[in-house]
Specification:
- This protein is of the alpha/beta class.
- It is built from twelve helices and nine strands.
- α1 packs across α12.
- The mean pLDDT is about 95.
């Protein structure tokens, strides 16, 4: 724990999406930097002390320990996709660690979707309802960072990602090996995270003791009206929409930062 002095800025604990190391969000962090200090785990799930298992209990513990190491005061929890789910689950378990939480395209599932995910796990079909199957065949190495940038520029997922965010993703999401570079985020761990996606969210209804908000991409393929209704009705979340798809924090980092700031002020 750091000495208990009053911080000069509010502190954000940011948690990244699956497969996107925290350095990928440098533009978002820069847009937040004048108002917030930011802490993060660089690659969630890669510390062997916190293995990826069903429902992610050790990843929650990893986040708890990271917050406890870096802040003596409740933080503003912000998470994108995987990171938002983790932030929510951690706030359920340790509300004392958070002032508010803001989920970025991490929809808390209602009963029907939760049951569907649970059934998919039992039938071994998670590869068909999540990007897990893609991870098995994901290219992970290139001759150079420039080659990696060109490769991702041709992928639909990255079509609307801000060019500087894509450059940051390659710069901070790859490491040099031999005659080239490879992904920093191990696709095997990415696969495990998708296949062990928590699905017992209905059991957490009424248990959230932290002011919370959700920001969804207007063109996201992971959020629908039932998710918004569930989060408002059963979890008391303020829900807003922003331009972009599932990767809107990397498509529109400045706009995302502004909405985060607005929500922090609104939630107190």
């Amino acid at each position: 724990m750091i000495p208990q002095t009053v911080p000069a800025k509010d502190r954000i604990q940011f948690s990244h999406a699956n497969g996107f190391p925290a350095g990928s969000y440098r533009q978002l962090f820069a847009a937040l930097a004048d108002r917030f200090d930011i802490d993060h785990i660089d690659t969630i799930g890669h510390d062997p002390r916190y293995p990826v298992t069903e429902g992610w209990p050790h990843l929650v513990t990893e986040l708890i320990h990271d917050i406890e190491r870096h802040s003596a005061y409740p933080v503003i929890g912000v998470g994108h996709s995987l990171g938002g789910f983790l932030t929510y689950l951690t706030a359920i378990q340790r509300p004392d660690l958070f002032r508010v939480i803001i989920l970025l395209d991490s929809p808390i599932m209602g009963r029907l979707k939760s049951a569907a995910v649970g059934l998919s796990k039992r039938l071994g079909m998670m590869e068909h309802i999540t990007p897990a199957g893609v991870c098995k065949h994901r290219r992970a190495q290139w001759p150079s960072k420039a080659d990696a940038v060109r490769y991702f520029q041709g992928k639909p997922l990255f079509a609307k990602v801000d060019p500087q965010c894509l450059a940051d993703y390659v710069e901070h999401g790859t490491i040099e090996v031999g005659q080239g570079v490879r992904l920093r985020f191990d696709p095997r761990i990415e696969y495990q995270i998708y296949c062990s996606l928590p699905h017992r969210y209905p059991e957490t209804r009424g248990r959230l003791r932290v002011p919370a908000a959700f920001i969804g991409g207007a063109h996201s393929n992971v959020v629908d009206r039932s998710d918004i209704a569930n989060m408002r009705r059963h979890h008391g979340m303020e829900c807003r929409q922003i331009q972009g798809g599932h990767l809107f924090p990397l498509e529109y980092p400045a706009q995302t930062a502004n909405m985060i700031h607005e929500l922090v002020l609104a939630l107190g």
